[in-house]
Amino acid sequence: MKSIRRYSATVNAGSMADIAFLLLIFFLVTTTISADKGILRQLPSDCPDINECIKDIKERNLLRISLNSNQEIFIEDEVVELEDIQQIVKAFVDNNGLSDCDYCNGNKSSESSDHPSEAVISLHHDALTKYHLFISVQDEITKAFYDLRTRYIKEKFNKAPAQITDAEFKIVKEAYPFIVSEVMVKRD
């Protein structure tokens, strides 16, 4: 007598790995990955000769802006509002303290910068300063320089900022150089 052997039914799973791999590739390709947001800021280039890059700055050519851990903004040890920074920076940079700047419209104050090329903005922040406040202060400083440069472009070249050439922009940057020193105050 013959015995009937029954074999258990099997499913061919050889292509399952291929299908899973194809699905993985499909979802990786079709999924959108959010891009990281950052600050568009060009870092200064290396200084070839350190002695040329280090120089003494007159006290009147230095505008100190400090941000503390209580999210307060100080300019020269006085509390100011965020909205006031742009006007203060413009007045400081465009002061014309030496009266030798023919394109400056400043008040010629003895307490502000000698010339726009000598003006330095020193931005100090505490380790607990909120990132949003720091960026907002940087934006206000940048707006001040943008306004000064725009006015200079209109007066000197009679053009809109988008219409100037690279050579003209180099002249504008020399007239109003963007000199900002950023320092974080370390906590003990």
Automatic annotation (TrEMBL):
Subcellular location: Cell membrane
Pfam families given in the database record: ExbD (PF02472)
Keyword Glycoprotein set for record: no
Leader peptide range in chain numbering: none
Keyword field: Cell membrane, Membrane, Protein transport, Transmembrane, Transmembrane helix, Transport
An example molecular function term from Gene Ontology annotations: transmembrane transporter activity
Record's bilayer topology term: Single-pass membrane protein; Single-pass type II membrane protein
Coiled coil: none
GO CC terms, sorted: plasma membrane
PANTHER family: BIOPOLYMER TRANSPORT PROTEIN EXBD-RELATED (PTHR30558:SF3), EXBD MEMBRANE COMPONENT OF PMF-DRIVEN MACROMOLECULE IMPORT SYSTEM (PTHR30558)
Family: Belongs to the ExbD/TolR family.
Name of the featured protein: Biopolymer transporter ExbD
